[in-house]
Each structure stands twice: as structure tokens, then as C-alpha cells.
């Protein structure tokens, strides 16, 4: 991702149009003016990956420097090291792990996206993420059985889809517990 | 005259009690809203880092999402949202173009209904019955997606900077087709093409999912910021009101005392002149 | 470049990514041990009223309450 120069925090086309049509009102701010610009793509591969891991209700990891992360991409486990090619990855329910030296942190994410930028900053955005230890194996088994039944009795496309999601999520939770 | 002043003092004292109580309620709600807002500030940044923000994008179908409160007594923040929404409407209008409003909050609706009825597509209310959470706002975003056609969404809200400072802000969210159009033509989204996509679907599918997810995350952030601004503004409004009431009370007390002294003096004069008439 | 070739099953059934991801999140929250489960469920309360407008007039409002979709 190209660097965001300080001037790009303001969209000059927009400001000019605004000043012409709405001269008595200062133009509104846009999100870029509230964000610190991202680092430029370095010429050499950096030694560490910088990870941001955010949920709607908190920033779990903020600019943490690590060796590697493994994402639960819809195509399977995807390892990300510094220098990884810029990628937009859609995530499926599964384990997201963060590796630094001998430390490994694991989270079960419900779904979301990960952006691996060319500057070795990786943003992971999930709707829900829980430590694996917080998952109740009994509830997982119960849920899996419930949805396996539901998919057989489902008549509409929507009900079938909901049941399939139930199976996928509970299977993933199950795998996470037994991994 | 006496009892009129006394009654007035009673009602001003009551107003002062109420505004002080409302200020305390707003203050405690504000504390928890602030925490939630600060915790959510990481959420929109990855999307801005990846997709930037293109308020000057030229598209046919614009939808302005005006975020306002249901309740009043919160200073000028709703007028601000409406003012900026109308300005955006002016800027995005043109031949062959269409700009509609989706209004969140009763107060915004009441103002926009005055001159812009025909452009209202959806109105949403009762959003803060429970404290705002992501699921709630995501379901609202989902309803908007399913009921409104758009090339660009422009979310107008008051960003919370401090209890006395709220910043009018616009976040622009593009439809997946426009994201693709902009990334192909170079310009601000030109870098997007350099990203590979990793997913079981086509790149187009992934971008659609991404654009939808961006909308719910960004709308949630905006709703929280505005709710925080609403509480801050209400706290300030209640604070001014109760201080005002305090000043009125002081003035009334002076009047009351002067009136009381005047009547005592009058009585004394009557007694003395009566007595002197007797002894006189 | 956009192709509808590989629409996932939930998209084909009329869901958006938002509905899909909300359902996933809700299912995960439902499998948590206490007290995490109770705490997580506070993130799911939904209530709002929704009114479609046509030609400057509001239609009948609908209330959406406490369902996650």
C-alpha cells in the first residue's frame, strides 16, 4: 500500500467543490484526517510483522510487532510472514494465531477480513473473537447436533442456509477444541 | 407580589433540580459511551487504510445517511448533521443524478421533513433503547442495504472530540461496483488492484462482502461517535440551564428580600406614624 | 471483471455478508462458558423502528426487536 502523504488526509477536490457551493460553511472532516498515516513500503523486507487485531468492541492488538500470524482464510490456514504479498483475505470461523518468538496467542474468530499490506502491516477485523479456553465443549456438541437435525427438516433456502452456517460454525468450534 | 415571587422561586428551584439531575445522568452515560467509542476507534481504520476515503467521487446514486438523536436538549448537534447533509445534497446533485436521505433519529427527520420530504428514502428511530452495540447497527446497515440502491453512501455525524467539541464528519462508503470502477481507473483506489484476494469466491464476490462489512463497521463507529456527542452536548446544555436557573434564583431572592424589607418598612412606618398620631 | 460465478450458499439464499457474519458471531457467543456468555450476549440486543418513505410520505413503520439476522 502506497504511503499516505500528510496532504492526502484532505481531499482537495472535495474541499474546492464545497467552498464553491457552500461558501458559508467550513467543509466537514473525513476519516483520513483522524488517522495516523500508514508507514510506506520499505525497500527491504522488515524483520517483523505489525499486527492490528480489532473487534467492534475493542482493539485486541494494536501495532504489535510479531514474527508471524496464521489466518483462518476461507481457503484454509494462511501463514503471513513479513514481506508477504499484499492480500485481502476473507476469514471463515476458525483459529487466528499470533506467533512471536516462543509465544503463541490463539483466538477463535467468528468471521471477518484480513488485509495484508505491502508494508508488512496486517489488519485483522473480526466481528467476534474469543480465547479458545472460553469455549464450552458441551454447548458446541449440542449446537452441532441441533443444526445437523435442522438442515434435514429445513424447507426454505434461507432455513437451509442458516442451518448450514450452524453446522459450519459448530464444526469449526469443535475442531478448534480438539486441535 | 410576595407570593408571585415566592412561587416563581419554587418553580425555578425545581427546574434547577431537574437540570442538575439530567446533567448527572448524561455525565454517567457519557462515561460509558466514551469508553465504548474509544474502544471502537480501531474498527474503521483498516478500511480507511485499504480503501481510503473518496468524498469527491462522482456517482449517479448518492445516499446521505444523516445521524441524529431521538431526544432533544442536546445543543446544536442535530442541526449540524442536517446542515451538512443538505450541503452534501447540493454538492452531489446534478442532471442524471439522484441523491436520497436515510435519516437515523427523530430530530434529524423533523428538520429534513420541512423542505426535503421527497428525497427521504428511509427513517430509523428508537436506536438507543438499549446501549448501542455492533449487532444492532449492523442489522440497521443490513436493512439499508436491502432497501436502498446506492453507488455511494455518505454518512454524516458529529465526531466526539471532547465534552465541548464535536466535529462534523463525513465518511464515504462506495458500492462494490464503484470500488471496482475506481480501482480500475487508477486514482485513490488504484492501489487496490495490487492486492491479491484470498477466498473461496471470485474477487468480485470478495469485494462485495468487503464493501458490506465496511458499511456496517463504519456505520457503527459513526453511530457511537454521534451518541457520545449527543451525551456531551446534553450535559453541557443541562449544565448551562442549571447555572442559568441558579442566576435567576439569585436575582429572585434579591427581589424577594427587597420586597420583604419594603413591606416591613411600610408596616413600621404605619405603626410609628399611628403611634405618633396617638401621642401627637 | 465482476462475475457471479461462485456465490456462496448464504448469498444465494438472500443473505448479505452482514447477516452471515452476524449469525456466525451469535453462534460463537452461544457456545461460551459463563460468565463470558452472559457478557457477550449484551452485544446482541437489537431494537429499532424502520419506516420506508414513498413520494414524501412515510409508510407504516416496522419494529425490529431482539432478533439477530
TrEMBL record, chain A:
Report whether Membrane shows up as a keyword of the record.
Answer: yes
* Localization per Swiss-Prot or TrEMBL: Mitochondrion inner membrane
List UniProt keywords, sorted A-Z. ATP synthesis, CF(1), Hydrogen ion transport, Ion transport, Membrane, Mitochondrion, Mitochondrion inner membrane, Transit peptide, Transport
- The reply on keyword 4Fe-4S is no
Chief localization: mitochondrion
Signal sequence bounds: none
Q: Which Pfam family, just one, is annotated for this protein? A: ATP-synt_DE_N
How does this protein assemble? Answer: F-type ATPases have 2 components, CF(1) - the catalytic core - and CF(0) - the membrane proton channel. CF(1) has five subunits: alpha(3), beta(3), gamma(1), delta(1), epsilon(1). CF(0) has three main subunits: a, b and c.
- Entries under HAMAP family matching the protein: ATP_synth_epsil_bac (MF_00530)
Q: Which family does it belong to?
A: Belongs to the ATPase epsilon chain family.
According to UniProt, the name of this protein is ATP synthase subunit delta', mitochondrial
| Record organism | Acorus gramineus
From TrEMBL, chain B:
Q: What GO CC terms are in its UniProt record? A: mitochondrial inner membrane; proton-transporting ATP synthase complex
Q: Which locations, inside or outside the cell, does it occupy? A: Mitochondrion inner membrane
**What is the topology of this protein in the membrane according to its UniProt annotation?**
Peripheral membrane protein
Q: What stretches pass through the bilayer?
A: none
Q: Name one GO molecular function term.
A: proton-transporting ATP synthase activity, rotational mechanism
The highest taxon in the source lineage is Eukaryota
Listed Pfam families = ATP-synt (PF00231)
- Please state the protein's primary subcellular location: mitochondrion
Keywords assigned? ATP synthesis, CF(1), Hydrogen ion transport, Ion transport, Membrane, Mitochondrion, Mitochondrion inner membrane, Transit peptide, Transport
Q: What does this protein do?
A: Mitochondrial membrane ATP synthase (F(1)F(0) ATP synthase or Complex V) produces ATP from ADP in the presence of a proton gradient across the membrane which is generated by electron transport complexes of the respiratory chain. F-type ATPases consist of two structural domains, F(1) - containing the extramembraneous catalytic core, and F(0) - containing the membrane proton channel, linked together by a central stalk and a peripheral stalk. During catalysis, ATP synthesis in the catalytic domain of F(1) is coupled via a rotary mechanism of the central stalk subunits to proton translocation.
Family of the protein in this entry: Belongs to the ATPase gamma chain family.
Q: How does it assemble?
A: F-type ATPases have 2 components, CF(1) - the catalytic core - and CF(0) - the membrane proton channel. CF(1) and CF(0) have multiple subunits.
Under which name does UniProt file this protein?
A: ATP synthase subunit gamma
TrEMBL record, chain C:
One GO cellular component term noted in the UniProt record for this chain: proton-transporting ATP synthase complex
Membrane spanning residue stretches: none
| Subunit architecture | F-type ATPases have 2 components, CF(1) - the catalytic core - and CF(0) - the membrane proton channel. CF(1) has five subunits: alpha(3), beta(3), gamma(1), delta(1), epsilon(1). CF(0) has three main subunits: a, b and c.
Entry protein name: ATP synthase subunit epsilon, mitochondrial
| Protein's GO biological process | proton motive force-driven mitochondrial ATP synthesis
What Gene Ontology molecular-function terms does this entry list?
Answer: proton-transporting ATP synthase activity, rotational mechanism
Key words, A-Z = ATP synthesis, CF(1), Hydrogen ion transport, Ion transport, Membrane, Mitochondrion, Mitochondrion inner membrane, Transport
The subcellular localization recorded is: Mitochondrion inner membrane
Q: Give the matching InterPro entries.
A: ATP_synth_F1_esu_mt, ATP_synth_F1_esu_sf_mt
Highest rank taxon of the organism: Eukaryota
Native source organism of the sequence: Acorus gramineus (Dwarf sweet flag)
The family note in this entry says: Belongs to the eukaryotic ATPase epsilon family.
- Source organism phylogeny: Eukaryota, Viridiplantae, Streptophyta, Embryophyta, Tracheophyta
Q: Which CDD domains does the record match to this protein?
A: F1-ATPase_epsilon
Q: Does the keyword Nucleus apply?
A: no
Please tell me whether the keyword Protein transport is annotated for this protein: no
- Principal localisation: mitochondrion
User: What does the function comment of this entry state?
Assistant: Mitochondrial membrane ATP synthase (F(1)F(0) ATP synthase or Complex V) produces ATP from ADP in the presence of a proton gradient across the membrane which is generated by electron transport complexes of the respiratory chain. F-type ATPases consist of two structural domains, F(1) - containing the extramembraneous catalytic core, and F(0) - containing the membrane proton channel, linked together by a central stalk and a peripheral stalk. During catalysis, ATP synthesis in the catalytic domain of F(1) is coupled via a rotary mechanism of the central stalk subunits to proton translocation.
